[in-house]
Amino acid sequence: MSPSAGSSLFAQRPRSVGCCRLLQPRRCIRARVVRCREIRFQTQFREYNAFCCTGLKELGETAYKEYGPMFRVWLTVLPSVVLLQPEHLQIILASRKNTEKMYFYKLLHNFLGEGLITSTGRKWRHHRRLIQPMFHLSILEGFIRTFHDSARHLVAKLNNEADLSSINITLPVNQCVVNILHEAVLGIPTGSQSTDVSDSPFRQGKVVVPYRMQHPWLLLDCIYRLTEVARRELQHQKHIIHFTRKVSKNKISSSDFGKSAVSGTPQDIPFVDLLLAASETDETFCEEDVVHELGTFMLAGQDSVGAALAFSLFELARHPDVQERVVRELNEVFGSDDRTPSLSDLRRLQYLEQCIKETLRLYPSVPLMSRTLTEDAKLGKYTIPAGCGVLIAPFATHRLPGIYPDPEKFDPDRFLVDRVESRHQYAFLPFSLGPRNCIGELSHSTWLR
Ligand code: HEM
């Protein structure tokens, strides 16, 4: 039987599907997933190369060649479908209904809390509507000075390095990003005497989801709770919640609270002020929600921006010709002027933006995402049924040779306007796309510049 329109991949037993390659047991990708067991399932910088270059590269190259742009993998005992083709990704990601994340995002609750990234259903929809306007570029504009000051500190620090021929760039870059986040999200000025950022719990902790997935019995909360790893994770979460609650309580009791958030002018209004102001006018958005959303921004922002910046610098260091073009463009826009850039200055840095995009193509900060379908999805001749998990791997899609010839080559000209227009919109998704995309996509790319 050939897979006809409306045939479901999981409604039938594997062998009865005949030529449906996805479900032929001996040809499925189970063996490869087992081989990836050593790779830690997380995106922190050190593990990034191991996880992506082995696990996801194999998905994108070997598996793609052998099985095509859609195939089944096993995550522990549960089957999911990997989608690589932009046309298929669009059907899933653009859907207003398929916005649920897969079960393992729940495991992030102990780390991220229940903010936008991990929440679902009505709560997610409500919070997203409320918070989206806070990421407007006009609000970000107020923080350009913070970005500029932090970038200057970073450059000064690098200039003080005795040996710049080889440097672990992640440490100073991460420090810079964490400082910016403390200021922009929590309203704690960098270098503030009142709160020591180096003690911040947001500089500690670790995602343990990969560990739990490698030890599937730990997916059961009743067993996991008994372990030392769980004890440490919950302790860390307690610190984060305590710290964030204290920050928001201090804000509420401070004399200037509320003044900036309602004035509406683009000045440096930290997210904590905006969220607290929202909780005053919307009784369904309580202080606990504010605490969880703040924690999410702090944790979501750190690794993603840190990795994007570190990889950008890495690629510029490896490509002096590209670096020279970037410097030339900076000179054209700023000359010898050391002013704080304006939004329009940043918009003129077109080549730099191409470099950042090319970096995010090669090293997307979130290299793997997922959804659980809430309605059937018809992808060509296949139907993926509601309830099925779908894995989306920007790392692999960004390397499909039919879309990006010579995919491993760092070539910022791939992002020249006419070349972008010739590609499918969903061929480039470092911030994801559709209703559950990164909440500040626009502002983050300006921030990175
Ligand atoms: C280079 C920087 C960044 C990249 C590449 C990035 C990428 C992404 C991606 C791919 C998603 C979707 C994740 C998924 O579907 O599982 C996402 C979601 C999200 N990001 Fe970012 N992100 C970046 C920076 C930030 C920053 C700085 C913040 C906050 C301060 C942030 C806040 C969020 C939030 C709240 C969500 C959840 C949105 C929702 O589900 O409604 N991101 N991000």
With strands numbered from the N-terminus, the spatial order across the biggest sheet is 1-2-6-3
Q: What is the level-2 CATH architecture name?
A: Orthogonal Bundle
Q: Find the count of extended strands (DSSP E, 2+ residues).
A: 6
> Would you tell me the structural class of the helices and strands?
mainly alpha
Helix content range: 40-55%
CATH class: Mainly Alpha
Look up the CATH topology. Cytochrome p450
| Form type | globular
User: What's the CATH superfamily, by name?
Assistant: Cytochrome P450
Low-confidence runs of at least 5 consecutive residues:
1-45
Largest sheet: 4 strands, mixed
| H-E order | HHEEHHHHHHHHHHHHHHHEEEEHHH
- Give me the number of helical elements: 20
Q: State mean pLDDT (0 to 100 scale).
A: 82
Q: How many distinct domains?
A: 1
Which ligands are bound?
A: protoporphyrin IX containing FE
Query: How far is the N terminus from the C terminus?
Result: 53 Å
